[in-house]
Amino acid sequence: MTKILTIHPENPQQRLVDQAVDIIRKGGLIAYPTDSAYALGCHIGDKAALDRIRAIRQLDKHKNFTLMCRDLSELASYAKVSNSDFRSLKAHTPGAYTFILNATPEVPRRLMHPKRKTIGMRVPDNAIALAIMATLGEPLMSSSLILPGEEIPLTDPYDIKDSLSGQLDLVIDGGFCGFDATSVIDLTGDEPQITRRGCGDLSAFES
């Protein structure tokens, strides 16, 4: 059965955050709010939960997953970042941007793009998501909650619960997030490449 928790979007109740983190640590799959739209999240090392995300979204092995981080201090363990790229990241986080970076050996192989060895990383500007990661003590493996055949993500937590009943362990009701996905910027080359235009000002990445 899929559980739903209503957590305050600005002042998350720690006892409810603790319940969500306990579910994640036990291998659960959650839907949670971010600063762009709702997302699916699980423990970074949990292959079974990752496979459940692939099944829900009908993703192939070439799909880049995202490591949702609480701040940039977690970057060094999972991504190789130049000084200039770090300055760009610092200027745009937290925020609704996903950055494609070269992965370090710390990233589980199943999370990386199999040929390019890259990983998506972002720091959301959302109090609930940040509280979850702070309590968890590590990044959250994440993917946008866009169902097969759809172009926009689900935004109502009760619609999410109804649509994915039995496929998720927890839906966090954190209020309305919006319909737009993050902007995606690839920082693995000589120059930044905008690979998806979504939320956020992209002028700093345009030549």
Q: How would you characterize the largest beta sheet?
A: 11 strands, mixed
Give the second-level CATH assignment, the architecture: Alpha-Beta Complex
What is the global morphology?
A: globular
CATH superfamily, called what? DHBP synthase
Low-confidence stretches: none
Q: Give the amount of beta strand, in percent.
A: 15-25%
The helix/strand series, from N terminus to C terminus, equals EHEEHEHEHEEHEHEEE
Q: Look up the CATH topology.
A: DHBP synthase
**Total number of distinct structural domains:** 1
Number of helices: 6
In total, the number of strands is 11
Gist of the model:
The chain has helices spanning 14-25, 47-57, 75-78, 83-91, 127-136, 157-163; strands at 3-6, 30-32, 39-43, 66-68, 79-80, 97-103, 118-122, 140-144, 170-173, 183-186, 193-196. The protein has 207 residues and is of the alpha/beta class.
How would you describe this structure in keywords?
alpha/beta, 26% helix, DHBP synthase, 207 residues, single chain, eleven-stranded mixed sheet
Provide an overview of this structure:
By secondary structure, the protein is an alpha/beta fold. It has a single domain, classed as DHBP synthase. Helices cover 26% and strands 22% of the residues. It is built from six helices and eleven strands. It has helices at residues 14-25, 47-57, 75-78, 83-91, 127-136, 157-163, and strands spanning 3-6, 30-32, 39-43, 66-68, 79-80, 97-103, 118-122, 140-144, 170-173, 183-186, 193-196. Strands 1, 2, 3, 4, 5, 6, 7, 8, 9, 10 and 11 form an eleven-stranded mixed β-sheet that branches. Strand 2 and strand 3 (39-43) form a beta hairpin. The longest helix has 12 residues, at 14-25. The N and C termini lie far apart (49 Å). 42% of the residues are buried. The mean pLDDT is 90.
